[in-house]
Amino acid sequence: MGVISHLIKIGFPNNCITCNDSLLRNEKFICSNCFFYIPKGESIISNKTEISSLLGNQQSLIGGGHLFNFDKDGKTQQLLHELKYNSNLQLGTFLGELIGAEFKSQLQEVDYVIPVPLHKKKLYERGYNQSEILSNGINNVIEKKILTNNLVRIRYTETQTKKNKLERLENIKNAFEVNNPKELEGKTILLIDDVITTGSTLVECIYGLKSVKEIKLIVLVLAKAVY
Ligand SMILES: [Zn+2]
């Protein structure tokens, strides 16, 4: 790359996050070529999707879906990394908008959107909740209310990445609690997380909501990792 084009790139950081090629005027964050090759998830919300089966037989669950799968080229992981560790909040909002657009027609019954909460210590360390950023993007499309103070994470847990399924479940046990069950009674809640691996975090979230009468849940995640 020549000096001039390098300077131009610095002046206009309009490059694809996953391949670094210049973006065309109608492209945002990811070029069409990369987008084409990111493996897509299941865009039907039902109790027969992969996400639903990871979450097990939950009475309150209407169904789950996901936008992307992890891929061997690591494009999905790069997007998640940008969102989770690189504070790329604009990308997060954009990815949320993609989720919203993909599932919009199936989200009409939703009353509230709840991002999977972080423990306040984790929130302080990171400065933001990546699932809340996704929820903001989703809400740009479906225009529902986001609740961030009702379902809360009461236990600070170590990272799950090096743990097996059983250890993950044990690690996150009783991590979530509902402050005001009345607010959620009889409501349809859209629960949002950035990534699902074994499903233990979301299972525990659903467990945390079990005191809420007649709650109905839809679970959407940005990406499903291979476990
Ligand atoms: Zn690209």
What does this structure look like?
The chain has 227 residues and is an alpha/beta fold. The chain folds into 2 domains: 1-37, no CATH class; 38-224, Rossmann fold. It contains 10 helices and 7 strands. The protein has helices spanning 3-11, 32-37, 50-55, 75-85, 89-103, 120-126, 130-142, 165-172, 181-184, 200-208; strands spanning 61-69, 112-115, 145-146, 151-153, 176-178, 188-196, 216-224. Helix 10 (200-208) links the parallel strand 6 (188-196) and strand 7 (216-224). The longest helix has 15 residues, at 89-103. The protein starts with a helix and ends with a strand. The site of zinc ion (ZN) has 7 residues, from helix 2.
Short description:
The chain has 227 residues and is an alpha/beta fold. The protein is built from ten helices and seven strands.
SSE diagram, text form:
Layout: H1 3-11, H2 32-37, H3 50-55, E1 61-69, H4 75-85, H5 89-103, E2 112-115, H6 120-126, H7 130-142, E3 145-146, E4 151-153, H8 165-172, E5 176-178, H9 181-184, E6 188-196, H10 200-208, E7 216-224
Parallel strand pairs: 1-7, 2-3, 2-6, 6-7
Antiparallel strand pairs: 4-5
Helix pairs in contact: 5-7
Question: What would the keywords be for this entry?
Answer:
alpha/beta; Rossmann fold; five-stranded parallel sheet; two-stranded antiparallel sheet; 10 helices; binds zinc ion
